[in-house]
Structures are given as C-alpha cells and as structure tokens.
Amino acid sequence: MTTDEDSHTRSPGAATEVYPPGAGAWLLKGLAVIAAILLFLMVASIYLGEHEGLVAAGLGLVVYAVGGVWAWRRRKRPLVIEKSGAIRYGERRICEVHEVRRVVYRRNLEGVFELWLELADERAANLPVVFSVFCSEGAAEAFAQRLSKVLNAPVSNQSGASNCD
Q1: d(CA 119, CA 15)
Q2: Is residue 163 assigned to a domain?
C-alpha cells in the first residue's frame, strides 16, 4: 500500500482511496452546538416547570445524538477510485474516471464553497457532502487539487466576483 504526502490518499493494491478533508469535523462541531442549545432548553424547561418543553428538547437531543453517531461513522469513509475506473462512495457509483472533464468549485450565494465533478457531457457528478462543502476557498481549492491529481483532470474555480459579498 502506498500513501501520498498529505496522508489523505491511499492506494491499497487495486484501488485508490481519497479521504475527506477535515474528516467531517465541521459537521460534528455543528451537531455539538445544536446539542448544547437543546441541553440548555431542557435545563430551562426543568427550571420553569414546562414539561412539554422538556420532552421536546429531550427528543431533540436523541435525534441529534443519532445524527452525531451517523456523522462520526461516515467521517472516515473514502471515495474509492477503482482500477476499473469507477468512482464509488460505499456502494454508490458516482461516475467513471474517463468521464471526468474537470474538478469544479465555486462560492455559492450563502458564501459556502461547493465542489463537484464536471463530466464530458457537461453533467455534474455530485459528491457526498463531506467531499463537496467547504467553509473556505483555500480548503476547497486544496481538496480540488488533491482530487484532480488522482483523477488526472484540471481544476476550475467558478467563483465569480458577483457571488462574493
């Protein structure tokens, strides 16, 4: 097995694995903030004697705990580029390597950077969220460069001045 210099790409024999940047840490931090808010609401409900609020906040905490476990387990699942050319995430086939024209990223209207694969027929191949949503342009560009190296496809930044602030 070979590993590249940034330790986020591995080639275990028959396939290349590309791991998500930051391992989904932003998702886990968001869930932690929401859980803290729900916990505060539970404490406030107990203090104020509002039992309906306590039940709602408790159910909310359970839902977010399940979401946190889901996010934690998915943080280390790689994109797999098989020797046959298929790009997969788990059992989901995203596209074939020979179909990829370029790796594209841009800043959307909310200020978040999105990344996707543009295919030869100009369709977009959407990647799972842990590989396609970034809070900074630097992170989006770094991952796009890493992915383009593995896929042997150029990178395109489609962030226009009209989309920025």
Answers
A1: 21
A2: no
